[in-house]
Amino acid sequence: MSRDLGISPGTSVPPIATRVARPGWRDPRLWIGIALVTGSIVVGARLLAAADDTVQVWALAEDRGSGSPLVSDDLSVQRVRFAEGAVLDRYFPADEPVPTDLVLTRAVGAGELLARSAVGEADAEEVLQVPLEVDPNRVPPDVETGSVVDVWVSDGAGLAKGATSEDLEVDAPALSEVTVVAAPEYDDTFAVTGARQLVVAVDDRGAAEFERLLSSLQDPVIRILQRS
């Protein structure tokens, strides 16, 4: 028989190959594997959800001062994590639009979260637009609408009478962190009056105090300092 098959005497016959049978759906190993894969997916999803417990809230894109109207262009989205969920109620979530007709009741810096305590209704918050006539040399050239500035005032008449700078020293701005709501170009005002006009938003009380200060000075000199 060996000779007929071409196999020399004494040579071992190779074993017959067998195919590996695929496990059937009743095989417990199949169900164990499915359970392991499903469990790993569920655990991974829960770990990812726990790691990303941040929320999106509205923040200011640029510096804005007290009395500045709040518009959508002023806002940006910040993703933050709060240690306590109740803290989120103090801010405006970014998944909801900010109510219209709001103004800032205090200065808010760029990137600062928009707190509910920092805004008020435009009708309730009495804001006046106060025009300022400023020597172009006493205002930074890049001051524009939306800039946050401090307004310092001194009496030019005192210097004309021989008073020293120490006698006329001013230790605080007349208006602090106010927003410029209008800033005409130099060509629109300088050629006519020799001064640049700025209009700032000031609350009712601050505007009254500022007007009283100007009335008390013989020659009020206004200087603008821009906040960066």
Written overview of the protein:
By secondary structure, the protein is an alpha+beta fold. About 4% of the residues have low confidence. It folds into two domains: 67 residues, Type Iii Antifreeze Protein Isoform Hplc 12, CATH 3.90.1210; 100 residues, no CATH class. It is built from four helices and nine strands.
Strands, helices and their partners?
Layout: H1 28-51, E1 55-60, E2 75-80, E3 102-104, E4 119-121, E5 127-134, E6 148-155, H2 156-160, E7 175-182, H3 186-193, E8 196-203, H4 204-216, E9 220-226
Antiparallel strand pairs: 1-2, 3-4, 5-8, 6-7, 6-9, 7-8
Keywords summarizing the entry:
228 residues; alpha+beta; Type Iii Antifreeze Protein Isoform Hplc 12; 2 domains; two-stranded antiparallel ribbon
Percent helix, as a range, is: 10-25%
Cα-based radius of gyration, to the nearest Å:
37 Å
Measured by DSSP, the beta-strand proportion falls in 25-35%
Main beta-sheet strand count, sense and barrel state: 5 strands, antiparallel
Question: What count of domains describes the coordinates?
Answer: 2
Q: How confident overall, as mean pLDDT?
A: 78
Count of helical stretches? 4
- Sequence stretches where pLDDT stays below 50 over 5 or more residues: 160-168
Give a count of the beta strands, DSSP E runs of length 2 or more. 9
- CA(first)-CA(last) distance: 102 Å
Question: What spatial form do the alpha-carbon principal axes imply?
Answer: elongated
One letter per element, helices H and strands E, the order comes to HEEEEEEHEHEHE
User: Which structural class fits the helix and strand makeup?
Assistant: alpha+beta
Biggest sheet strand line-up: 5-8-7-6-9
